[in-house]
Design brief:
about 625 residues; mainly alpha; 2 strands
Length: about 625
């Protein structure tokens, strides 16, 4: 069964080229056709490759295009591969990506740079496909860097806004910190294992020894790259600022591309990470901290997109918590369900913003339930899913992570406790967003012009809402027993596996109290926000201080400014420029120039055309030579 894997990334690459070169000339109709169809073609080819994988006997489909690098024993090809993990990501990227492209047709209809937007969107999908299809770490790094470039271009799409340019630069620079880690790990793998192919790394990982210094250092460096790309503490602050880009871009980054890359990297090399218990502990702790921190910040945000952005930071923390306790399948399962409900929530927020003429402040919203019934219904489904309400997709994947955090040999009750508290916070801030946006009375202006968005925007919401409801049934926990756990069977043998401890009663007990907490949080949000924007908290109270601390993102930007930006600025300005550049570099250059000027002056004086002067120089020189010969 011929799969032609190279066609999968080729289609969106063609879309990028055609839209960039011909978009302005051939008009919006051309762009409207090429942009989404390029991703639809990639989706069709991805489905074909997945069918070939699932119907064949081989665990992996390989395709080598050409020899790339041959240095000593290191040989690398430009080659693609599809295994169960890659197949799942292919469907997420192209499936969710296609829906976002269709949605963008309506959302960006009035945009002046319509063709450029779709060109960049196609390019984003192309690089993400290269990233997940690559059969070696170096080719994956090409996609990794390309995704970073596209995020820079799309976050700064409204380049006339200073804030958009600053956000794009911030995303670019924070990701470069992580890239340093990946490149360093690449070099170490070449030295220690002599290969960068994923299958060979996983096969030879045991040679590094369990818990050894080399494997620990390599996995820590890889995780540094993941923290940058997937917005984990301490490199998470770029993601909320990425909201400066158009809303479909936010949906694409948060649900289908970019932020899932770090998780993909860790899962792809699970056989390497499982040998480094110290690294797994670091991943689990930082993932838990990120999940909790992101949820506490989302509690107080007034910008509807910022609520969802911090929510993504928090949910990514959940996924890394799963990775850190060795439950790689559970983490990837949450990637899948999160792609459904987070894309739905972002596109729903975009529909609200579109209806309110680009108003994003929830203080200017309220009472939109009757005006935007489809948007309200679908966003409510997304909220139920992310809050872990039973039978919605997020319930199944989140419960599996919490149970793994509790029962894994790499887990602990403390990790579970913070994951449990984060689940309650998630329910509270999500229903807060729903009540402030859709319930109570409208608090903004131009209420009469508010209407549901066009069908090109509504249809993707409906499709994603269906997936957000039923997607979780792919991984029903063993404790419920009414359906087999399809995700576990699907990933069998794909990841390093661990044995969970604990009884069914314990699992059911933890599941019940998690659901009760989510319902209590829902009730609290309803009580405070159901009737509109609540009265301000007493500014002198402790709660007001906590609210301000949360609203300012735990003062993370101020901490970065104090500990990183200002010291670097001081070193650059006072030491490198005023001292080293001015006195060392510039002084050296000035000294050379002065020496040349002085030498030129004396040479000029020696050749001034005066015979008496030449005779004097000749006499003095002769005398000095005679004197020197007598010494």
């Amino acid at each position: 069964m011929a799969t032609q894997l190279w066609l999968i990334p080729l289609f969106p690459l063609l879309g990028f080229v055609l839209n960039l070169l011909l978009g302005r000339t051939l008009g919006r109709t051309f762009t409207t056709l090429v942009g989404p169809l390029a991703v639809l073609a990639a989706l069709g080819q991805s489905v074909w490759a997945c069918i070939a994988l699932w119907s064949g006997s081989a665990a992996t489909i390989q395709e080598t295009l050409w020899r790339w690098i041959h240095i000593g024993d290191l040989q690398l090809e430009v080659g693609f591969q599809v295994d169960p993990l890659t197949a799942l990501f292919l469907l997420i990227i192209t499936g969710i990506g296609f829906l976002i492209h269709v949605y963008s047709v309506g959302y960006m209809a009035d945009e002046e740079h319509y063709g450029r937007f779709f060109a960049f969107l196609n390019l984003f999908v192309f690089f993400m496909l290269v990233l997940v299809l690559a059969d070696n770490l170096l080719l994956m790094f090409v996609g990794w860097e390309g995704v970073g470039l596209c995020s820079y271009l799309l976050i700064g799409f409204y380049h006339e806004k200073i804030s958009a340019g600053e956000a794009a630069k911030k995303a670019f620079l924070f990701n470069r910190v992580g890239d340093f880690g990946v490149l360093s790990a690449v070099m170490m793998l070449v030295v220690y294992l002599g290969t960068l192919r994923f299958d060979e790394i996983n096969a030879q990982a045991g040679a590094l020894g369990e818990g050894g210094l080399s494997v620990t250092l390599i996995t820590l460096l890889l995780f540094l790259g993941a923290t940058g790309k997937s917005a984990q503490v301490p490199l998470y602050v770029w993601l909320p600022d990425a909201m400066e880009g158009p809303t479909p871009v936010s949906a694409l980054i948060h649900a289908a591309t970019m932020v899932t890359a770090g998780l993909y990297l860790v899962a792809k090399l699970s056989f390497l990470f499982i040998l480094a218990p110290f690294t797994l502990t670091i991943i689990a702790v930082l993932g838990t901290v990120t999940a909790f921190l992101g949820a506490t910040v989302a509690l107080t945000q007034t910008d509807i997109k910022k609520v969802l952005a911090y929510s993504t930071v928090s949910q990514l923390g959940y996924m890394f918590l799963a990775m850190g306790v060795g439950a790689f399948g559970a983490g990837i399962f949450h990637v899948l369900t999160h792609a459904f409900f987070k894309a739905l929530l972002f596109l729903g927020a975009g529909a609200v913003i579109h209806a309110l003429h680009h108003e994003q402040d929830m203080r200017q919203m309220g009472g939109l339930r009757q005006r935007l019934p489809w948007t309200y219904a679908t966003m409510l489904i997304g909220t139920l899913a992310i809050s872990g309400i039973p039978l919605f997709s997020g319930f199944f994947s989140k419960d599996e992570i919490l149970w793994s955090a509790y029962s894994s040999p790499f887990g602990s009750p403390v990790l579970w406790l913070f994951g449990f508290l984060t689940a309650g916070l998630t329910s509270f801030y999500m229903f807060r967003m729903i009540y402030l946006t859709f319930h109570g009375s409208f608090r903004g202006a131009h209420e009469e012009s508010i209407h549901e968005p066009p069908m090109s925007m509504v249809l993707p919401l409906i499709v994603l809402a269906v997936l957000a409801v039923f997607g979780g049934f792919l991984g029903v926990p063993h404790a419920l027993h009414f359906l087999p756990n399809g995700m576990e069977a699907y990933f069998h043998g794909s990841f390093a596996e661990i044995e969970l401890h604990g009884s069914v009663i314990e699992e059911l007990g933890l599941m019940v109290i998690s659901v009760v907490l989510a319902l209590i949080a829902w009730g609290l949000a309803s009580r405070r926000y159901r009737n509109g924007w609540p009265r301000a908290i007493d500014p002198d109270s402790l709660l007001a201080g906590a609210e301000s601390f949360s609203l300012q993102n735990w003062n993370a930007d101020a901490v970065y400014a104090t500990m990183v930006v200002r010291p670097f600025h001081h070193i650059s300005h006072s030491v490198l420029w005023k001292t080293f550049d001015r006195y060392a570099i510039e002084g050296l250059l000035q000294g050379v120039a002065k020496l040349q000027r002085t030498g030129g002056y004396w040479l000029q004086q020696m050749q001034n055309g005066s015979v008496q002067h030449y005779a004097t120089v000749f006499t003095v020189s002769t005398f000095l030579l005679l004197l020197w010969s007598q010494l």
